[in-house]
Amino acid sequence: MEHITLNVSGMSCGHCVKSVEGSVGALNGVNTVTVHLTEGKVEIEFNPEVVSIDTIKETIDDQGYDVA
User: Which positions, given as ranges, span the membrane (predicted)?
Assistant: First the structure.
């Protein structure tokens, strides 16, 4: 398992947290997703042999948030 922390802007409420955690958490190979709303960060533990960082970033972007 690999662990990354992404800077994500545009998240402002509980719905944002559920949106990001739900969409990223549904990806095959993602073990855990934790959104830190006040810091604008998303921690993800995933299997890089199953899912790429780019796919994770695209999934967050598709929810309407900007990934740095």
Answer: none
